[in-house]
Amino acid sequence: MASQSLSLPVLLLLFSFHFFSAKSTDFLVGDEDGWAVPNPKEADRYNKWASHNRFNVDDTVHFKYEKDSVMEVTEEEYKQCLSSKPLFYDNNGDTVVGLDRAGLFYFISGVSGHCQKGLRMIIKVLEPLNLSPPPSPNSTAPPHNNSSALDLLSVSCPVFGIFFVFFLSFLFI
């Protein structure tokens, strides 16, 4: 009986680390439908899909497709639906692209006519959260060593999580 009452708080503690840890996410492009030419009524399908997700630096986008390809291109090439020298190209049917910077990423199909039919997408990767104020350009004073809000946040989330889990465990004992 004692081992069962102890296992619940330990299980809840381990589960809480899932919610309070920072990690990257792998997004499956187009969800279960994958990367395929949309029907004519859904020509903006992939941009709608991208707009419903929040992409961060170090996330990945996973393209699954058949008899097609994925190209990362410039904004101008995206608008033209054409690229002779893409930034990235793959046609293996199972492509993972790392989002290694904040900003816009432009993707199109490399198969002739597919981009014009809607097989293209813009992904906006958010700037990393920086809670520290920028240094003043006129500041001549040496920097002081106060804890930043980011330090407080990085400590308080796990501490809050542990406190919350132990509080919940006492409710179940």
TrEMBL record:
A GO CC annotation given for this chain: plasma membrane
- Kindly report the protein's main subcellular placement as a broad class: membrane
Does Transmembrane count among this protein's keywords?
yes
- Domain spans labelled Phytocyanin: 25-127
* Molecular-function annotations in GO: electron transfer activity
Q: Which domain of life is it from?
A: Eukaryota
Membrane as a keyword? Answer: yes
Write out the transmembrane intervals.
152-172
Where does the signal sequence lie?
Answer: 1-22
Q: Which InterPro entries match?
A: Cupredoxin, Phytocyanin-like, Phytocyanin_dom
Q: How does it sit in the membrane?
A: Lipid-anchor; GPI-anchor
- Compartment list: Cell membrane
PROSITE patterns the UniProt entry points to: PHYTOCYANIN (PS51485)
Q: Which keywords does UniProt give here?
A: Disulfide bond, Glycoprotein, GPI-anchor, Lipoprotein, Membrane, Signal, Transmembrane, Transmembrane helix
Where does this protein have coiled-coil stretches? Answer: none
Q: Which family does it belong to?
A: Belongs to the early nodulin-like (ENODL) family.
> What's this protein's name?
Mavicyanin-like
Gene encoding this chain? LOC111008921
